[in-house]
Amino acid sequence: MKEMAGIMVTLTAVVFPLHGGDVRAPSAVFNQIFEVFLLLGTAVGVVVVAYTMYHALKYRDDGSEEDPYADKVERPEMGEMPTGGTGGRKVFYSFSISAIIVVSLIAWTYSQLLYIEQGPDPAQEEALEIDVEGYRFGWDFIYPNGHTTNTLRVPQDRVVRLRVTSTDVFHNFGIPELRVKTDAVPGQHTSAWFTANETGTYTAKCYELCGSGHSLMTTEVIVMPQDEYENWYAETEGPTETETAANETGGGDHQIAPATVGGAPA
Ligand SMILES: [Cu+2]
């Protein structure tokens, strides 16, 4: 199955070519799966409905004749098995075409999801690795230099790998627009990855009911042009003032005052 998936990935790359060495973003992959299913579903629907309508009209009883096909077809009597026909050719064709469509869809979708699961080749693309820690009620984003913020800033067109965990109860970290979603489980790390092809502000939320402040676990994800990001990152070091203040007042327990809940700007 894996070899087949590899072939399908290559085929997809040929059919849907990318601009020079780009990594396909999860959002692009999921959108493409949706489009392919929508297109095929519509095509199959149109064929089936058109075929049904055609026969319903062709063989309708318009009351003009008693039985216009009485001398043309041999109809079985009640309780009698039909004879003649074309040896099941229609059944064979419709079954084969359906089988080919369904099996191809399964194989292709599987190959796409395998790509999402594994992520782009690390040799091809150096990822930015960020630790994400969920707590009641907020998110900490810890950069490779130790800088910790409540707002996730990432560069455009770069693979971002998230290592997600929780410091208290089950949470679930998700950025719907970028098609990122993974559990945040205390004592464990789960991973997710994405690339954002367009700059802008996205929203990250908690998708696991985790207590009275669950709905406050909303924060911004800011996708910046690469040079802007580099400038911003060069100026960061260690935990921010917000974070330090929060740790001091809350004894490191993340008891952030309501005013700062929801992602104070870093
Ligand atoms: Cu939560």
UniProtKB/TrEMBL annotation:
Keywords: Copper, Electron transport, Membrane, Metal-binding, Respiratory chain, Transmembrane, Transmembrane helix, Transport. This is Cytochrome C oxidase subunit II. It comes from Haloarcula japonica (strain ATCC 49778 / DSM 6131 / JCM 7785 / NBRC 101032 / NCIMB 13157 / TR-1). Pfam families: COX2 (PF00116). It comes from the Archaea. It is found in: Membrane. The chain crosses the membrane at residues 36-54, 91-110. PROSITE patterns: COX2 (PS00078), COX2_CUA (PS50857). Gene3D superfamilies: Cupredoxins - blue copper proteins. One of its GO terms (cellular component) is membrane. GO terms for biological process: ATP synthesis coupled electron transport. Residues 125-235 form the Cytochrome oxidase subunit II copper A binding domain. Residues 236-248 have a biased composition (Low complexity). Its main location: membrane. InterPro entries: CcO_II, CcO_II-like_C, Copper_CuA, Cupredoxin, Cyt_c_oxidase_su2. Belongs to the cytochrome c oxidase subunit 2 family. It is a multi-pass membrane protein. One of its GO terms (molecular function) is oxidoreductase activity. Residues 236-266 are annotated as: Disordered.
